[in-house]
Design brief:
about 280 residues; two-stranded antiparallel sheet; Rossmann fold; elongated; alpha/beta; Alpha-Beta Plaits
Amino acid sequence: MKIAIASGKGGTGKTTIATNLACSIAQAGETVQYLDCDAEEPNGHIFLKPEIKSSEDVTVGVPEVDMAKCTGCGKCGQLCQYSAIICLKDKPLVFEQLCHSCGGCMAICPEGAITEKQRKIGVAEFGKSNGVYFGHGKLNIGAIQTPAIIRYVKQKAINDGIVILDAPPGTSCPVIEAIKNSNFVLLVTEPTPFGLNDLELAVGMVRELKLPFAVTINRSDIGNDAVVKYCQQENIEVLIQIPNDRKIAESYSRGVMIVETMPDYKQKFLKLYEDIQSMGKDN
């Protein structure tokens, strides 16, 4: 089962929920893998503290022009919507960092002058932490192909256990890449006007993707009850509410998981897992 943990905005506690859920499942004796798909700023490793066993370069294909064959027709530049390849004075210029690796320039070139070479955009690291199989991707500074990193990390998902996908914040392309084909999406929010606004966007996203989902409210005793009322009006299940507890905040600031400092929360996260399983089967 693949469970995606997502949020409409950053700072809601998405990684806190994802890492503690993975750890609780592992401590219950089940096979579980945590994959941090927030490739621009992965931080699950701060809490899980994995022993990294392998590090792999992630590359994407970018165009390379054979100037001996190129006639300067400019068709490649006319096709490219991202200006990753343009023709100036009948000479093509390639801007690799803008390329989205669609292959269109190679397909349209009448002289077959454009081939593909590989460009490194980041790394993916894999290991293990206290029974939790771990993986994350790290995008190079300046690179823009976040979905490619996410796809690479997801390809390493285990087939015989539970996979927790820690998605990037927001509702853009990287988030969709992270949560698509999941069996269930848990949306993490907070009871504030910003939290409600971004939750509504996230709900629209998962409904468009036709994925079963529910909500977790973090720091549930701040703000107001507008998020709870919205979920009631939309018939959305709120599976767990975590209060604004100083002990939790202190643990977070030290890079320590809730279930380590407050063992009672282990049962709460296991109950969350059981509810997710039940709702996932119903859909």
